[in-house]
Write a structure and sequence with these properties.
Strand order of the largest sheet: 3-2-1-4
Helix content: 25-40%
Radius of gyration: 23 Å
Strand content: 5-15%
Structural class: alpha/beta
Order of helices and strands: HEEEHEHHEHHEH
Distance between the termini: 83 Å
Length: about 200
C-alpha cells in the first residue's frame, strides 16, 4: 500500500524546503579585476579595482559599447579575469556618492594608473597634487607644471582620456578664457562638478 505522505504535494514540498533552506549563493573570491556599473548624478560610470584594492578605472560609460570598451582595456592591460562584483566596490561607491553629494571633498581611495599612458602618468598626479577642491587651472598652466609649457593641447588629450575621472579631478581644468571645454562625461557633468565644489569650498 502506498504511503500517502509520499504522494501528498504539501508534504513533498515541505520536505524539499527543508533540504534547500541551508543553501546559499556561492561567494566568489575577488577577481583580478572587480567592477560595477553605477548610475550617478553625473552619468553612468564604471568603477573598477585590482586585486590589490587599488582603483584602476572610474570611467563614464553612457552606452553598452562604452562599457565594453573599458572592460576590453581592463582585460588587456590588467588581467583577463574581469568580473562584475559590486561588493568589492562598496568603498569606492560610498566615497563617490559622498563626493557627488558634497559631503566630502577628497577621496581616500588608492589608485593605480595602469590604464594610463606615460604622459598621463606625469600629468594626472601633478593635477591631483596642485589643483585643489574648488580651484581651477588652465591647460597651459598644467602643462607648465609638468615642465611641458608648449604642450597644452597634449595635456588636453591626456585629460580627455583620464581613466580615473572625478577621482583624479580633470574637471578642474578649463580653457584659458575660463570657458568649459571637453569632458569625458559631457559639459553638464563638468559644470555640475565645478558648481558643486564652488558651493562647498
Amino acid at each position: 500500500m502506498t504511503d500517502p505522505t509520499t504522494t501528498d504535494p504539501t508534504t513533498r514540498l515541505a520536505a524539499f524546503g527543508r533540504t534547500t533552506s541551508s543553501l546559499h549563493p556561492p561567494v566568489l573570491a575577488p577577481s583580478d579585476v572587480s567592477y560595477v556599473v553605477e548610475d550617478t548624478v553625473i552619468g553612468r560610470m564604471l568603477l573598477a579595482r585590482s586585486e590589490s584594492g587599488a582603483m584602476v578605472a572610474s570611467a563614464f560609460v553612457p552606452t553598452a559599447q562604452d562599457e565594453d570598451r573599458v572592460l576590453t582595456r581592463l582585460s588587456e592591460r590588467v588581467s583577463p579575469r574581469v568580473l562584475r562584483q559590486p561588493r568589492e566596490l562598496d568603498e569606492a561607491r560610498t566615497e563617490l556618492e559622498a563626493f557627488l553629494s558634497g559631503r566630502t571633498r577628497a577621496f581616500s581611495l588608492r589608485t593605480d594608473l595602469v590604464l594610463a599612458s606615460d604622459f598621463q602618468r606625469a600629468v594626472l598626479p601633478r593635477l591631483a597634487a596642485t589643483v585643489g577642491y574648488g580651484d581651477r587651472a588652465t591647460y597651459g598652466e598644467l602643462a607648465a607644471r609638468v615642465d611641458r609649457p608648449s604642450a597644452a593641447r597634449a595635456v588636453g588629450a591626456a585629460l580627455g582620456a583620464n581613466p580615473l575621472c572625478v577621482v583624479l579631478p580633470c574637471h578642474r581644468i578649463v580653457a584659458s578664457s575660463g570657458a568649459l571645454t571637453g569632458y569625458a562625461g559631457g559639459l553638464d557633468a563638468k559644470r555640475y562638478l565645478l558648481d558643486l565644489e564652488a558651493s562647498h569650498r
